[in-house]
Amino acid sequence: MARLIALTLLALAWPAAAQLSPGPLSEPHAALDHQEGCVACHERLRKQTNDLCVECHPLIQASLKARRGYHGLQARRQRCAECHQEHRGRDVSLIRWPGGARDAFAHERTGYRLEGAHADLKCEACHTRARIAEPAAFKLNRTYLGLSKVCRVCHAPENPHGGQFAPRDCDECHDQLSWTPNAASKAEAKRGAARWPSRFDHDRRFPLRGQHRDVDCEGCHPNGRFADTPNACVGCHDSGHPPQSGFGEGCADCHTDQGWSLIIFKRATHPKPLPLRNKHDLPDCMRCHGGALPRDQGCEGCHPSPHSAGFRRDCQRCHTDEGWRPTIKGRFHHDMTRFPLVGEHIKRDCEACHPKAKGGAVRLQPIAHDTCADCHQDPHGVGFERPCEGCHQPHGFRPSTFPLSDHPQWILDGAHRAVGCAACHQTGSALDFRWGAACADCHEDAHAGQFEARRCDDCHDLEGWAVPRALVQHPDWVERGAHAEAECAHCHPDGRYADTPARCEGCHGAPHLGQFIATPPKRPCDACHQVERKDWAMAPDWGHPHWPLEGAHAKAKCEACHKEVRLSDGRLAVRWRLGFRDCGRCHENVHQR
């Protein structure tokens, strides 16, 4: 009973309690700042509830039900008063921003992350009355609600496509970084990456491969035209073929996007009657299909006949697609004529022997061919009476088949065998075979007339000029000992052979300063020295001419008696001829002590 009385008294006292407000309301709720206004947000005897808030804020209620926006995604289980505190006065903001400040608010909690260019914008740049799409939110003086995520709601005047992609939204192709590719995207484009917006997949409509990847967007989409862009080659590229070529619009049958010049046409499928083989297997299709060439006149439709009038037009009787020039493998056999083709004649073009007559036609009538001179100019000049086939064959003018044994006046032997005919018989532009047989007729005298009275083959043979004949002997000097091993140039410098001295001092000088020839008895060099030795050694039987070396003298060295003295002109020389024989000149007289 006491509890019932207390509840009754509390109910009667409610209006009086309502006057005990904790403080004035904010400016948006100022109209509720009276006794009856409390129940708009507070149930009797209870705190503020979210149910009463959403009754006055239908936009929030719609977000909660749809689970979109910040309230529908993040604040569904929170009390409104946690972010919107009242009774703090008219000038105090009703919003307590998560994060502590409006600029620190994490916008991704609303379900729309600010990236790229959007990340640098102020809130007022997007949250304006002009950009609010929902009518209920548009009636509010200031709100962050009612803004659409659809790009064209905010950027309708900036859309360069002019409705080409309606009803598709911009974010299907573009992101928030920028409308056009940024500098990084263009740098990637040079390496083969896409040059279109990051979210756009060009492969869905027209995969860009080959050289299409190197083309700027404007190359295929001029003036910003993207919708209804043709996919067929002829929609962008002019056909390089004339109408009379007969090619339709199936460019991909022969070409690829790797380049126009890359032909993938299967040449084996070329329609008859002209299969692409041999000479007709041309890499350039335009050689045949580039002009107004008729296709129904046989060979002459492409190849004008080089033959004179009256010649049969059945080209296949003599020619094949291996080449215009008829060969023995072709259908025309030259062996059926009076001049079978052999050797080099097979390789010659027909026009070489059948020149074109006046008017451009090839003259195929019989031509003179009894002798080689009927077609070939004689390179030998006058005086050569041997027939051509005596030295040459149809397989080639060179090498000559002239037998060396038939060479007149001069048997070709030794080094002469390796010399070409022109080396001896060339005179200007002709070959002159009227020639002498002496060495001097071809070779200059390397000795400058030193051996006028002698023949070249007295010293040299035909194996080579640098190797003298083995039987060559010195006329004034017998080669022996060390002299036999010396090179010719050692005694004959600069090719000087005539008047070469024959005495030792002529080459070796006078190391004894003439002591053995100034006074008698005169002695030549080889009286004491051995010519066979290279070290100037004394001959074993040279003997001591003026003083017999006996006893202790036989053991004494030469320099013990023959001292080195200085001459009046300052030179040093060994005194070999002493001019005395008395002992006292060399030995001390011990008896005088």
Provide structural commentary.
The chain has 593 residues and is mainly α. Helices cover 17% and strands 4% of the residues. The protein contains 19 helices and 8 strands. A hairpin with a 2-residue loop joins strand 3 (426-427) and strand 4. The chain is elongated.
Give a short summary of the structure.
The chain has 19 helices and 8 strands.
List keywords for this structure.
two-stranded antiparallel ribbon; 593 residues; mainly alpha; 17% helix; disordered N terminus
User: How is the biggest beta sheet arranged?
Assistant: 2 strands, antiparallel
What string, H for helix and E for strand, traces the elements in order? Answer: HHHHHHHHHHEEHHHHEEEEHHHHHEE
Segments where pLDDT lies below 50 for 5+ residues?
A: 1-19, 182-187, 189-194
Mean pLDDT across every amino acid position: 77
The total of beta strands comes to: 8
What is the topological layout?
Layout: H1 2-12, H2 14-18, H3 50-56, H4 58-66, H5 69-73, H6 123-126, H7 135-138, H8 151-155, H9 183-190, H10 217-220, E1 255-256, E2 259-263, H11 286-289, H12 344-347, H13 350-353, H14 421-425, E3 426-427, E4 430-431, E5 460-461, E6 464-468, H15 488-491, H16 504-508, H17 515-518, H18 552-555, H19 558-561, E7 564-566, E8 572-574
Antiparallel strand pairs: 1-2, 3-4, 5-6, 7-8
